[in-house]
Design a protein that fits this description.
This protein has 247 residues and is an all-alpha fold. The protein has 2 domains: 6-179; 183-240. It has 5 helices and no strands. Helix 1 (2-15) packs parallel to helix 4 (94-179) and helix 2 runs antiparallel to helix 3 (28-90). It starts with a helix and ends with a helix. The relative contact order is 0.08. The mean pLDDT is 78. Belongs to the PspA/Vipp/IM30 family. It comes from Kocuria sediminis. Residues 132-166 form a coiled coil. InterPro entries: PspA_VIPP1 (IPR007157).
């Protein structure tokens, strides 16, 4: 029953079209997760059954080897007894010879018994060996399917994460489009330009006030020079008048 169950699973797994199952599934990721768990459990059960079958085969092989060994030993005993009987018969001791011939017959009977048992286990060993080979092959197929399933699951998970990331990027882009951040930047730029213009105006005003002060200072200096020159002229004229009167 266990072997039939295992062979049934192996046949099912070998025929399984994973891509078609994924296409038909409502939620491929959940389906693959469940399949991986199911196949892993199937493999565990199959490994236990295969190990048990191999153990039974090894016991049969040991029993067969023991029967062959016993048959050889009883054959050797039969030969030894027969040779001993011939020795006694050659020396005229017929009763002793008959005794060893009887022993040889008993040994030959045992030899035949073990040979029969050995031949009886040979078909079982052959059949069991074929079963073990099929089970091993089926187990390898199950492992291959499990690896295929695992790869598909990992691939699907990676693709799903990629889709989610792309969706988040698209949502962010749409959000920026709705907010129109360029208009906010433009308003900020206008504010900075107004501040820059105000600062330029203050600098220009400060510069004009300073120039006016210097111009006023220069005008004051020029007026002082004029007054000094006028005083000098008057002084020279006064000297000329005094000189003329003395003459």
């Amino acid at each position: 029953m266990i072997k039939q169950s295992i062979f049934g699973r192996i046949a099912q797994l070998a025929k399984a079209n994973i891509n078609a199952m994924i296409d038909a599934a409502e939620d491929p990721q959940l389906m693959l997760d469940q399949m991986v768990r199911d196949y892993t459990e199937n493999i565990r059960e199959a490994e236990a059954a295969v190990a048990q079958t191999i153990g039974s085969l090894r016991l049969l092989e040991q029993d067969h080897a023991e029967d062959v060994r016993e048959a050889q030993e009883w054959g050797n005993k039969a030969l030894a007894a027969s040779n001993r009987a011939e020795e006694f018969r050659a020396s005229g001791r017929s009763s002793e010879a008959d005794k060893f011939d009887n022993l040889a017959k008993v040994a030959l009977q045992r030899q035949i018994q073990y040979e029969t048992e050995a031949r009886g286990t040979e078909p079982q060993i052959q059949s069991q060996t074929q079963v073990v080979e099929k089970l091993k092959d089926g187990l390898n197929k199950m492992r291959g399917k499990l690896q295929e399933l695992s790869n598909k699951r990992d691939e699907l998970n990676a693709r799903q994460k990629s889709v989610q990331a792309q969706s988040q990027v698209q949502d962010a882009i749409k959000a920026f489009d709705v907010l129109d951040p360029t208009s906010e930047v433009s308003r900020f730029e206008d504010k900075i330009r107004r501040e820059e213009a105000r600062l330029l105006g203050q600098q220009e005003l400060a510069s004009s006030s300073l120039d006016a002060q210097f111009e006023s200072l220069e005008a004051l200096g020029q007026q002082s020079e004029i007054e000094a020159r006028l005083a000098a002229l008057k002084s020279r004229n006064a000297e000329k008048i005094v000189s003329s009167e003395e003459v």
